[in-house]
Amino acid sequence: MPVFLRPWLLRDAPALLAARWSSPDLNTQFTGADFSDEAQATDYIGNFLRFSDSAKNWAVVEDGVAVGNVGLSAIETRHQTAWASYWLAGGARGRGYAAQVPVILFGTAVVCGLRFTSNPQSLGR
After folding, report:
1. Which domains does the chain have, with CATH numbers?
2. Which of 10, 41, 94, 116 has minimal Cβ neighbours within 10 Å of its Cβ?
């Protein structure tokens, strides 16, 4: 299936709502967010999945439906750093999308003028 990235759109709220509840392990991605209806999912997109100077979030889109997120947040140009994150809905896993995330984030970080360094803690060392 073709998959691509694009900024989140408010009309992605139904897909975000479905993705949010697709797997219990996504609870950590949405701590404190109330997702009981599409209006709240729309608010979440506008407030947290924004595309700005300090945060860039791309929807992972499969067949026209947002099934995940790839993001850079806390972008700090002085030190050329940012936090990188991603998540996928339960049904979008096992298709190799997550394996592409480091390549996507590296390219994006370079375009944004950021440096990429390793985080030893994320490697379990």
Report:
1. 3-123 (3.40.630.30)
2. 94
